[in-house]
Design goal:
single chain, mainly alpha, two-stranded antiparallel ribbon, 2 strands, 3% strand
Length: 435
Amino acid sequence: MAIWSQVKQLASQTPAERNRYVDFLRAVSILVVITGHWLIATSWYAEGNLTSGHLLKSHPQTQWLTWLFQVMPIFFIVGGYSNAVSLESARTKNVDYATWLSTRLNRLVAPLLVLIVAWAGIGITMGLFGVSPEDIQYASQAALIPTWFLAIYIMVVILAPATYGLWRKYGFLSFWMFVAVAIAIDAAFFLADIRWLGWSNYFWVWMAVHHLGFAWRDGRFNSPARLVVYSALGFAALAAMILKGPYPLAMVGSPDEGLSNTLPPKVTLLALGMFQFGLLLALEGPMRRLLGSLRWWAATVLINTMIMTVYLWHITVMIVFVAVLSLAGGYGLGLEPGTPEWWYSRPLWIAVLVVLLAPVALIMSPLERRPRSSEDGIPPARRQIIGASMLCLGIALLAMYGYGGGPVQHLDKMSFAMVIFGAGISGVLPGIRSK
């Protein structure tokens, strides 16, 4: 229990002015995402064959659960709050943009690189043992699904000083500007069948959601009763878009053929975020009092010290576990997904995966806290932006196609090169001098 003692000591040193509820929501949102992924990815071993599936496709009646498990809007809102605090601190301390961005990129990218490199090695090893290219592509693409979030979040962070400047100058008008563009993009998507333009909503939708974090930081959401009303309006808007509009029910993935709320993002995610956020923020007062307890706060601190690691590796741990069970004759995988017996077994399934993920998190999480070497220096801002943009493009392609997939031959190799080269340019790779 040495780790717990260290975390409690660290937690006890937290400044009184820190909004602990921000950290709590960050931790809870990531844990909910992980649990959701472990539930919807199904594996069934029958008659000597392993069948991998998607619960939302095989059992459409479960799609309503995604209204609870799709909490990425909460993470972006929390990110907006944290980025606002960080930018305010940087301004007070006269920290320039390049230094500020370098610190943010270091924590986000360092643990990500290990996963990307690890799966390149796993893919090569699987090939040497005769695993089919299709299986390698399927496994790697599944394992790298969590990285899509970082690809867009890193770009949102790069733009955060500019978008925060808009917020400081125009307030909610800047938020509605992003919302209006997102709605226009959706209109072009559905009414004019301009599908390619829809991908730009990765920026407009998520920057609008991120903006809500700025509003929270500025104290614009301080009435619980008003927040409940906002939540009800978000729910009503979401229900209307699905029941009366062209949007699908599921808030995760693409269970409806050819149509998704996330690929590319739709304004439904804005409505969902407002629905969830209004309810959660209405509880801020009592939750901040609860987090005054050292035990609750220490648990929150513990999760946040390894939050990127558990998020990035949770699907990899599940894939390896399923592979081992399959090699053992399908032990533990004999229940048909969606049956009552399968649901009864899910708490045990999740508990085992938590136990397996814990040592991975303890080993890998120090990368999240790795300080930059004083010898590395700070790369110029333009160089960081170019490198991070290249890295994000490589990540997005790997998350979409995995290793061995894609419409162009050797796209995975080119994507991997973009990730590594982009990390080097931006100064995230250890030991690469910036000057």
